[in-house]
Specification:
Chain B: One of its GO terms (biological process) is signal peptide processing. Chain B: It is found in: Endoplasmic reticulum membrane. Chain B: One of its GO terms (cellular component) is signal peptidase complex. The complex is a heterodimer. Chain A has one domain: Ribbon (Umud Fragment, subunit A), CATH 2.10.109.10. Chain A contains 4 helices and 6 strands. Chain A has helices at residues 3-31, 111-114, 144-151, 153-169, and strands at 37-39, 54-58, 69-72, 81-89, 98-102, 131-139. Chain A has a 6-stranded antiparallel β-sheet with strand order 1-2-6-3-4-5. In chain A, a hairpin with an 8-residue loop joins strand 4 and strand 5 (98-102). The longest helix of chain A is centred in the first third of the chain and has 29 residues, at 3-31. By secondary structure, chain B is α+β, with helices and mostly antiparallel strands. Chain B contains 4 helices and 5 strands. Chain B has helices at residues 17-35, 43-68, 74-102, 180-199; strands at residues 39-40, 105-113, 116-127, 130-142, 157-167. In chain B, strands 1-2-3-4-5 form a 5-stranded antiparallel β-sheet, with helices on one face. In chain B, a hairpin with a 2-residue loop joins strand 3 (116-127) and strand 4 (130-142). The radius of gyration of chain B is 23 Å and the shape is elongated. The two termini of chain B are 29 Å apart. The mean pLDDT of chain B is 88. Classes of the chains: A alpha+beta, B alpha+beta. At the A-B interface, helix 1 of A face helix 2 and helix 3 of B.
């Protein structure tokens, strides 16, 4: 392989990766949501969502209503939570909404969750800055694949490396 | 023919049209470059590479910017949108170049002859269920640089387009081995033919 061949094949690999990544970015811009796809990890929203369901998120302009299902992040914790809004305090402005959430399958609301970290003591509400997105739709079980790959990261590297190698060596 | 090292045997699955085409493309390139004396021009490949890597540069820059800045900021959204736009723009440009300019070109090159600089572009294609190798030779001679240009009343540049088609059976034997001699003899004939038309 000469230099041009190597550059061409590297470009194919890059364009394959960026093609997926940029489409996701474009989708994120369209939905106004940084990660418009999330996978459900827990059973706290049964029977609505099961572990492995893929959720489609977006962030419309209108204020969040009671009964909507939101994905939010509690400051200091990495894993986002998908729960239903059961109460809200607001003056009609989305930017100042205070929300209380609860998993459909849980017995209590999420106040305990909010305050789990001592840095969050006194946190009574989910604030707008915590919201990742609002659920607009879902695909059952397809996210199992992602969960499987997160549980076995070597599988992910093997898959990525394999596809990359095939594209790179393809003439 | 001067015998150098033993030429390598090109063998393909003769029931695979694409294999046959690729083998001929490769042999044709090799012939034009090594035997007919054309210097290959990599303009098409280079143009596509530049467009492709420019797109990737925008994608990489946009991704990095998005990685170090929070998504909620309107500036982050703006620069992400810019990078997405330019990534796709360069992608489309690259594809457009391949489909509209490069087309089926398998070889482009030039050589200096007593008549001036001779430029050649060869396209090849096959049609499904049709065992023929279709070629198009585009030849151009730039007389402006030739030694005898003073005598020529003809236009300084002239282009010829000639098409040829040959069934693969004339070039490949039963085992799918390319008969290099027959192939090169035919290509030489096509080249001479194109050149002759050109001089008329």
């Amino acid at each position: 392989m000469n230099l041009r061949q190597i550059l061409t094949n590297s470009l194919n690999v890059l364009m394959m990766l960026f093609g997926v990544f940029m489409s996701y970015k474009a989708w994120g811009l369209y939905t106004n949501c940084e990660s418009p796809l999330v996978v459900v990890l827990s059973e706290s929203m049964e029977p609505a969502f099961a572990r492995g369901d893929i959720l489609f998120l977006s962030n419309p302009r209108k204020p969040i209503d009671i009964g909507e299902i939101c994905v939010f992040k509690i400051p200091g914790r990495d894993i986002p939570i998908v729960h239903r809004v059961i109460d809200r305090h607001d003056s009609g402005e989305k930017e100042k909404q205070l929300l209380l959430t609860k998993g459909d399958n849980n017995n209590v609301d999420d106040r305990g969750l909010y305050q789990e970290l001592y840095t969050n003591r006194g946190k009574m509400w989910v604030e707008p800055k915590d919201i990742v997105g609002r659920v607009q739709g879902f695909l059952p079980y397809l996210g199992m694949f992602t969960i499987f790959m997160t549980d076995y990261p070597y599988l992910k590297y093997a898959l990525l490396g394999g596809v990359g190698l095939v594209v790179f060596l393809y003439e | 023919m001067t015998s150098e090292t033993q030429p390598r045997v090109i063998k393909v699955d003769k029931s695979n049209l694409l294999d046959l085409k690729n083998a001929c493309d490769e042999a044709l390139r090799e012939y034009l470059e090594n035997k007919a004396g054309f210097r290959q021009s990599h303009r098409h490949t280079d143009t596509k590479l530049i467009l492709g890597y420019l797109g990737c540069a925008f994608a990489a820059a946009g991704s990095y910017y998005g990685y170090i800045h929070p998504f909620e900021l309107s500036t982050t959204k703006f620069w992400t949108a810019v990078s997405v736009f330019f990534y796709y723009l360069f992608n489309v440009l690259m594809m457009a170049y391949a489909y509209l300019v490069e087309k089926n070109t398998i070889f482009a090159g030039s050589k200096i002859t007593p008549n001036g600089t001779q430029t050649i572009a060869v396209e090849s294609s096959v049609k499904q269920y049709h065992p023929y190798y279709d070629m198009a030779f585009d030849m151009k001679v730039d007389h402006s640089k030739s030694a005898s240009s003073a005598s020529s009343a003809a236009p300084k540049k002239k282009a010829t387009h000639q098409e040829f088609s040959t069934a693969f059976q004339y070039w490949f034997d039963e085992d799918g081995v390319l008969a290099q001699d027959a192939f090169e003899a035919d290509i030489a004939k096509f080249l001479a033919n194109t050149e002759a038309t050109h001089l008329e």
